[in-house]
Amino acid sequence: MSFGSASGSSTLADLSGDRELTSPPEDSISSVSFSPQADLLAVGSWDKKVRIYEVAANGDSVGKAMYEHQGPVLNVHWSNDGTKVVSGGSDKAGRIYDLQSGQSSQIAVHDASIRCVRFVTTDNSGQQMVATGSWDKTLKYWDLRTPNPVATVQLPERVYAMDVSQKLLAVATAERHICVFDLSNPGQIFKTIPSQLKLQTRTIACYQAGNGFAVGSIEGRCAFQYVDEKDQQTAGFSFKCHRDTPTNITRPEIKVYSVNAISLHPIYGTFSTAGSDGSFHFWDRDSKHRLKGSPSVGASISATGFNRSGTIFAYAVSYDWSKGHQFNTPDYPNVVKLHPLKEDEVKPRAMKKR
Fold this sequence. Notes:
Layout: E1 19-20, E2 29-34, E3 40-45, E4 49-55, E5 61-68, E6 73-78, E7 84-89, E8 93-98, E9 103-109, E10 114-121, E11 128-134, E12 138-142, E13 151-154, E14 159-165, E15 168-173, E16 177-182, E17 191-194, E18 201-206, E19 212-217, E20 221-226, H1 229-235, E21 237-240, E22 243-244, E23 255-256, E24 259-264, E25 271-275, E26 280-284, E27 289-293, E28 301-306, E29 312-317, E30 335-340, H2 343-346
Antiparallel strand pairs: 1-30, 2-3, 3-4, 4-5, 6-7, 7-8, 8-9, 10-11, 11-12, 12-13, 14-15, 15-16, 16-17, 18-19, 19-20, 20-21, 22-23, 24-25, 25-26, 26-27, 28-29, 29-30
């Protein structure tokens, strides 16, 4: 299935007003995450550091804090109340940074790299725990008040991507498995669903309603999947994106790029994709319409995120390791850019009456 889109330059976002984040990381950027309570942005990097920036409405930014792992940082995430940042890395450690105390501490450990971290709420108390997904093929839950995991779940393969919304935790692993957890019973896999996409999963983002998720793969495709089989039959679909088809050529060669990041707009529920082709796009799932796309920024986009009010879109222009270490040259760009959003870029289109 393909998304509809008007033709012409009107479908391209204007990037001339985008601002660069002050004092960016010194190596590839793996993850960006905005606080749900303030305009603070956490950035994880292969330089082993997590940096936290304060971002003003006009795109000005200032560094507020920094802490370190002993290996590349692979993922970062904020607590619901905005007081803590959790991170996981190739040092097999999960760490928490407390904004009030200014201190970081290790709260999780695995037998291999921690690829994904998320704060989760498993009961009605509102007390948050941390879920960590690793290349050791396990998911662990951590109560910050105790040193040992409160539960360990064996997964079918290595964790590649993970996201949470409401009581839904979706864990995407190697071999195209997607393990769905109902956080009312977090210690058991609720169901395992195969990805609609044929090749390796790169990113996953749960819908705000907690009833499904969007998945992106290395094959330049995105899919909308639902937990309930009836919803999947009526509303699930996949589409091609982040592909380059040359024109005016007798036998065009289509270039296919990885979908590295999917982010959901916090107000409208529309979503973004970004990829190795160096572009990002905003999509309306319900009307199957591309709202806006960007021209290529000249390098891979490795991570993205919307701020809490949906007025700023952060995207990391950085090497994504898709071509191996030999292509991570010293002159490769390494910045986070802040794009001020216009309503027509992210607001759903009015549905046409039939």
